Amino acid sequence: MGSNPSTQSLIPISLITGFLGSGKTTLLNHMVRQPALSDTLVIINELGAVSLDHLLVKHSREEMVSKVEGGCFCCTTRGDIQRTLREITWRFAREGRRRFNRVIIETTGLADPTPILHTLMLDEFIAEHYRLDGIVTTVDSVNGMQTLDLYPEAVKQVAVADRLILTKSDLSGEAKFSILSNRLATLNPGARQIQVMNGQIDATQLLDLGLFSVDSKIPNVAQWLNAEKFRNNTKPSIRKFIFNPLRNSARHRMTQKKPLSQAFFQNIYRHDAQIRSFCLIFDDPIDPDVFELWLGFLLDIKGTDVLRIKGIVNLANKAGPVVIHGVQHLFHPPVELAEWPSEDHRTRIVFITRVIDQKTIEHTFSFAKVAAARASAEGLVGQFVLHAVNSSTPK
C-alpha cells in the first residue's frame, strides 16, 4: 500500500443526487451563482431525449455547462460520463489552459449513485485527473418518508451520502421534519444534515467533503470519517425483523380485535430495514497480511452489499496510518499518510452495508486472522494478497 502524493492536485468532483422532486435543480441554481463555484464545470445528467433541466438552471458562465443527453449516467448510457470527463479538459480550455478547477455532476432523480462512483474509480484517465470530493443528497422534507418507503433507490442515495440536504423544511411541520431527520440519522449517522429553504445554502458547506483539500497540508481525517456518530448505532435496527409488511400485517389482523392504525403502516420502513451502519474500532495495530486477507475475503463474498467503507487503519510496522475508501467491491488506491493527524492511533473503519450486520463483519475478521496464521505457518502468506482490491482499483 503505497502513498499517493498527487492526490491533492486532482480535480475534485462533487456528486449531487436525490430523488425526483427533492430540489436538486433549485439547490444547484443557487450554488452556481456564488463565487465559490466561479471556476466550476457543471455537468447535468438528464434522462430522456429532450433537455429541460439546463433551462431551469441559471449560470453565470453558460459556456461552462456541459449537457449530457439521451440517457442516464448510471444505467443505459453510463459510458457518457467517461467520455464527458475525458473531453471537457480540452473542450473547456482556452489557449491551452483548463478553464475549470472543480466539477459538479447532478444525477437524475431515479439514479442509483453507485454505478457513477464505480466509473469514477475504475476509469484510468478519470482516476489520474479527478478525485471524488463528496456525495450530496437532497431529501424532500414533505414527501421524504413516503419516498424512502416506496423506492429503494432513495434509501441508497441517503446511505452513501456525505451531506444530506433537507429541502422544503418550511412546509413539512416540525414534528414531521423531526421524524424524517431521525430516520436519516439511523440510515447514515455520519452524514451531516443541513436544513435549507428554497435551495438557499452557502456553497462552501458542500465543497471539500473528501479526505484531501487543496488548502490543507494535513488531511482532516476525523471530520471526513466522523466515526463518533456511529458509536451509538452499532446495534442492529429494531426494525430489522420487518421484511414483508403485508404478510406481517395480515397475521396481526387475525390476532387483534381492533384494526391496525394508519400510523402502524407508516412506521414500517421496508427498504431501510436492510441498511446497517456501524464503526469497527481496533485498539492495537493490525497485521498487514490479516488486513489484506480480511478485506479481500469480505469483498469477494459480500462486495455488492458493502455500500461504502471509510477508514483510517493502523497497520503494524507503519509510521503513519493508511486511509481506505471503498464503494461496494471497488476501492480507491489506499493512501499512506506520513504521520498521524491526531493523538488517536486506533483503527476506525466505518461501514454502511445492506443486509450485512456488524457481527458478520467481525466474524470475517476472525476468520482472516486464523487463515493468515495458518498460511504463515505453511509459508503461503504471499498467496493471500488483497487481490480483490488490487484487481478493482485503477492502475
Task: Walk me through the structure.
Mean pLDDT is about 75; it is low at about 1-5, about 70-80, about 230-270 and about 380-395. Strands 3-2-6-1-7-8-9 form a seven-stranded parallel beta sheet, with helices on both faces. Strands 10, 11, 12, 13, 14 and 15 form a six-stranded antiparallel beta sheet that branches. The longest helix is centred in the last third of the chain and has 20 residues, at about 360-375. It starts with 10 loop residues before the first strand and ends with a helix. Helix 6 (about 145-150) packs across helix 7. It contains 15 helices and 15 strands. Strand 12 (about 320-325) and strand 13 form a beta hairpin. It is an alpha/beta fold and about 400 residues long. The protein is about 35% helix and about 20% strand. The protein has two domains: about 5-215, Rossmann fold (3-Layer(aba) Sandwich); about 275-390, 2-Layer Sandwich (Hypothetical Protein Yjia, Chain: A,domain 2). The protein is globular.
Estimated radius of gyration:
22 Å
- Report helical residue fraction: 25-40%
Q: CATH first level of the largest domain: which class?
A: Alpha Beta
Mean pLDDT: 75
Q: Please indicate the percent range of residues in DSSP E strands (runs of 2 or more).
A: 15-25%
CATH topology of the largest domain: Rossmann fold
Gross morphology: globular
Residue stretches low in confidence (pLDDT < 50, at least 5 long) are 1-5, 70-79, 232-269, 381-395
Largest sheet: 7 strands, parallel
